[in-house]
Amino acid sequence: MILVLNGPNLNLLGKREPEIYGKTTLDELEELCEGWGVELGLGVVCRQSNFEGQLVEWIQQARDEGFRGIVLNPGALTHYSIALLDAIRGQSLPVVEVHLSNIHAREEYRSRSVTAAGARGLVSGFGPMSYKMALVYLADLLEAQP
Ligand code: CA2
Questions:
Q1: Can you give the residue range of the structural domain that contains 6?
Q2: Distance, CA 12 to ligand 1 centroid (Å)?
Q3: Low pLDDT (below 50) residues in the chain
Q4: Domain count of the chain?
């Protein structure tokens, strides 16, 4: 089972700023992820929170809840949350960081990811496909480590 976590303001997807983040709503994005999970033979559970501490707790508890990997879009926390970085580093599941937009093609302050230092890798700029690529990687990784 894979945990897909979305951070602050991602509940607004599809409702505002469609030129940057596209027209897909969070509900639709989560349905897409669940569908890709089915195709890849992975169970997928999606959660979203606007609260840093809630994301930290979900990351800390993921292994005990039975998850084997995490796809994480930390939202703006990406750019400054040492607490999320510590949470990622403080557990042993593989984490793939994802972004809908290309964080390197936007404001300078978005081009730095603090949290990616704890992740296996980062997929950025492909809209919902960023999540699919992360799930494909995790499916491959977990197949190699049954
Ligand atoms: O591109 C991404 O996925 C981001 O993680 C999205 C974050 C942003 O702070 C990161 O720099 C890049 C923001 C999510 C906010 O989403 C909204 C969606 C619609 C309207 C307003 C905000």
A1: 2-144
A2: 9
A3: none
A4: 1
